[in-house]
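Q: Got a minute? One more chain.
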Amino acid sequence: MVSERSSNQSHPLDYYMNNQSTDHHTIAEDLEIQLTENDKQRIKSISEQIEPLNHEGLLKYGANLQQKMSHFSHQILDDVQSKDMGPVGETLSQLMGKLKSVNPNDINPEKQSRLKRLFKRTKASINEVFSRMQSVSSQIDRITIQLEKHKDQLTKDVEFLDQLYQQNKTYFDNVTLYILAAQKKKKEILTETIPQLREKAHQTGNQMDIQATADMEQFVDRLDKRIYDLQLSRQIAIQTAPQIRMIQNVNQALAEKIQSSILTSIPLWKNQIAIAMTLLRQKDAVTAQRQVSETTNQLIQKNSEMLKISTIETARENERGIIDLETLQKTQQDLIETLEETILIQQEGRQKRRKAEYELTQMEQELRENLLILSQKEKRINQ
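A: Always. Here it is, folded:
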């Protein structure tokens, strides 16, 4: 029935999912409106297969479809249970944790805490951050591989769920045909068979004819219950359609989120970290250049001061004579004083010598006189 529907006609389930209709038609009524001639022939054929008073046949009527629906529901349940979204969320959380573990402020010494600046050297801190960034980058690459696997699995799940959605639509179509066929049979029995049986029982008054009428009425009641069971199964199919689409949308959103993380967030993070490291290295180079310039300027200033002092002192020395006037004056004064003292010493020496000569003469005279006296005394004694 789906294949025969024109391209301009959407399936009632699709119309129900994609439109907010203002009419009050049910999905089943929309499907009945879209019945093709082939569908009507199938309804007639299925209706003719229902044998009145065949309770076993009535019990099996549509049972194969309901069994398929049961199997179909188990498929969906197994898929949801086996595809735990926990690992996807955990992997995304790990990714966010790794991206946040390297803070650009940690790279910039000016934005580091005062305590960190006091107890850690800037260069060592930069190297630690760079090393941690490389380690985190490697971990992110491993997480990216896991995310790729999750994305591929989610994409496969979306395709699988789309197949289930198509199966659900097929089941909905078939159940609807069985319901319409049963309703057709019910109408025939109520409008044709039962009136005939009642008429016959009324004419004959035979208890068996009366019982036949009652049996047929009981069969119609069971047929009505069977129709109701099939309608419940169809309602399950109607409710299953948005559930499948919701699961598909969640999987698709997760796959898109993962792809965005892989293709946008991770490359952007790496680019920003690389830019931050490059700018920091540039800043270090500028700082080093500034220090070189400052050192050079200081050296030039000191050399200039030393050159100034040396030039002035040299000029002073050049203008100064070999011997200072004060030195000559002092030397001359010392020489004069030396000469004067020398003359005085010579004069004193002369005086002392003269005095000594006089004293020596006196001593010699006294010695002569004493020797003479002694000689005279000796002569007297000898006489």
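A: Residues 207-319 form the longest helix (113 residues).
Q: Perfect, thanks.
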